[in-house]
Amino acid sequence: MTEPTLFAISDLHVGHRENRAVVSALRPRGDDDWLIVAGDVGEVFADVAWALGLLASRFAKVVWSPGNHELWTPPADPEQSRGEARYARLVEMCRNLGVSTPEDEYPVWDGPGGPAIIAPLFTLYDYTWRPPGTRDKASALRYAYGTGVVCTDEALLHPAPHPTIDAWCDARIAYTESRLKALPADVPTVLANHYPLVRDPTRILRYPEFALWCGTDRTAGWHTVHNAAAMVYGHLHIPRTTVHDGVPFHEVSLGYPREWQPRGGPTPLREVFPGVQGVGRDSAR
Ligand SMILES: [Fe+2]
Ligand SMILES: [Fe+2]
Predict the structure, then answer these.
(1) Are 52 and 24 in contact (CB under 8 A)?
(2) What pLDDT, in 10s, does the model give residues 220-251?
(3) How far is the CA of 189 from the centre of ligand 1 (A)?
(4) Which of 25, 166, 196, 237 registers the highest number of CB atoms within 10 A of its CB?
(5) Looking at domain 6-283, which of 1.10.340.30, 3.90.1200.10, 3.60.21.10, 3.40.1350.10 is its CATH number?
(6) What's the 2 CA to ligand 1 centre distance in angstroms?
(7) Which residues have their alpha-adjacent CB atom under 5 A from ion ligand 2?
(8) Which ligand does the CA of 19 lie closest to?
(9) pTM, to two decimals
């Protein structure tokens, strides 16, 4: 019998034909395998529903955390809801598929490496990961616009009803912290978020200014405070594992075809539990 495995992947970006083919071929190893999908499934609502529906039909459990791309409102998408309303539509779609979201009770993994509470998070960013020499959000954005490195979120990710993304982030942090604080202290967690909980993994971005749109200082200690056995994230499109305070942080992105094709093929599903010590692991950072 195959040992149950907790897998993770992110940044499926199924708007790309080649990525759609990769997702069509994703299958569990055994009947009891779970899959964490850490955001950026696609941009168009129907594409996201297609991919999560397919995965939910194959894996025993799918746990989803939203990426910035799902939350965009592309002008050509028939689904034109924005901001929190769009997030609510995504959550509703997931619930209809049986996919766990950050709004649901956190499922408990009882397979190898467990028990562990699998907590999908949705925390956004608040422009605190600023370029050196900039002192606040306004000066950091001025600097970024000056370099030409500006995330498309600025045009397509609407924060409504919040005035800004950082205000929405503030609300998400309060909600998420209250959920995490209520968990039993003696059960380890797997924290799954589109964004890394610490800034360190962004240091190797080709365009460091992009870190502005990658997370918040306010999640920095969560992996130790909330007893994480592992952290799963995406968004950076730099698949690797780094270790922070003894906790493995897995960046599990598939990424765009132009990113994975030169590597000789798509990164396979990443194994969180039981996990393979030392394989694909970068040095501690
Ligand atoms: Fe992405
Ligand atoms: Fe992203």
Answers:
(1) no
(2) 999 999 999 999 999 999 999 999 999 999 99
(3) 24
(4) 196
(5) 3.60.21.10
(6) 31
(7) 40, 67-68, 235
(8) 1
(9) 0.96
HEC secondary structure over 24-65: HCCCCCCCCCEEEECCCCCCCHHHHHHHHHHHHHHCCEEEEC
CA of 67 from ligand 1 middle (Å) equals 7
Element (H, E) at 109: strand 108-109
Q: Give residue limits of the domains in the chain.
A: 6-283
The two three-digit tokens of residue 281, written as one number: 């692991």
Report whether pLDDT(285) > 80: no
Ion ligand 1: residue ranges with CB closer than 5 A: 11, 40
The DSSP secondary-structure symbol of 127 reads: S
In the numeric block, which tokens belong to residue 24? 């069509």
Could you tell me the distance, in angstroms and rounded to a whole number, from the CA of residue 48 to the centre of ligand 2? 14
Task: Report how far ligand 2's centroid is from the alpha carbon of 214 (Å).
Answer: 8
- And the tokens for 53? 């529906």
pLDDT tens digits, 181-218: 999 999 999 999 999 999 999 999 999 999 999 999 99
C-alpha separations of 114 from 58, 94, 103, 204 in Å: 22, 24, 22, 32
Structure tokens at 92: 């509703």
Token output for 68: 């910035």
Cα(186) to centroid of ligand 2, in Å?
A: 32
CA 187 / ligand 1 centre spacing (Å): 30
Please name which ligand lies nearest the alpha carbon of 153. 2
